[in-house]
Give the backbone structure.
Amino acid sequence: ETGVTQSPTHLIKTRGQQVTLRCSSQSGHNTVSWYQQALGQGPQFIFQYYREEENGRGNFPPRFSGLQFPNYSSELNVNALELDDSALYLCASSLADTTYEQYFGPGTRLTVT
Amino acid sequence: GDSVTQMEGPVTLSEEAFLTINCTYTATGYPSLFWYVQYPGEGLQLLLKATKADDKGSNKGFEATYRKETTSFHLEKGSVQVSDSAVYFCALSDWNTGNQFYFGTGTSLTVIP
């Protein structure tokens, strides 16, 4: 059974650019959640995807968008990057009927300069 | 809205000392409560959980009891080891808010030999 994987590990972008982060769910999991973790803070919920549809969204602007694919892998897209978007982005997968039991990937460290 | 308030760190203990990390929560519904641990350079790992009042979650010598009357879920361990050094996050998931997770800010624990 493979765990949750994320790519890339690190990324440096310039303000105003766009970025795509990727996540592969744990085998058998059909729900993916994305979180932003600023330095020294707890993770903040961005959104959740289930069966390729957004299934809940936190307090993030529309320039944060996502996709879930038929194999349950997922992408997080951020447009018009701002300096405050610099953070660790975490993906977590779960089963729809046990969404409280999430398994996290190692994260992607995004730096916006 | 839902929120988690966690004891501020950092916490430094000697090996074999007793650990308590305080966590209190605010929720509109009947949340499930969790402790996650983040080792340096890694993603979050579920440490333990409790899904209803008076439940006790336990794992690897750590324990936490879901106290509805005090809205608390304090983490305890009787004898810490150097390998327990990590950042600990208290979290809740509330079906009223679509199972969105709310995390505390994290408590850094360093155990010295």
